[in-house]
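Not sure how to ask, but would you mind making up any protein sequence you like and the tokens describing how it folds?
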Amino acid sequence: MESRLAVSSAEIMLEALVEDESIPYLTGNKENNIFVLNAHTFSQADFDAVGEVLLCPKPLGMLKLPEQWANKIREVFNTTLHYHMDAPVKVSLQTLGNGDIVIHNYNDEEIEARLKQVNGQYIDVITKKEISIESGVALLNMAARSKVWLKSIDAQ
């Protein structure tokens, strides 16, 4: 949507400063069941200026968000799953229908991710290693461009 968001009754959760103007980046309604991520990045004029139709005319700023922002965005969109993940940008959390959890690190470097509110014992389906969980937190040291596939040992 190529327009500015006007917020009337929603809560602004994240706000960006663009050319000395505050822009709502993440908003949610009072019931916390509808969220809007204002991810519009380029205007038609930006595409026209470089003669492009499909590819982004400049690097995407979303790939460089602060970790706090990435965590907040994951939190609001995963709230019903009851998982909270602290990790850098370019790390995704995917739940599968059988209760498994897949975490992808799309970064070009090793990262540390913390998956909170995890109960029981888990194994990484890929490496067959048991995942250590302390006080409901799984600490995952992930290599560049890797994934972890968590399966509950208790559910087997």
Remarks:
- The chain has a mean pLDDT of 89.
- The longest helix spans residues 67-77.
- The radius of gyration is 19 Å.
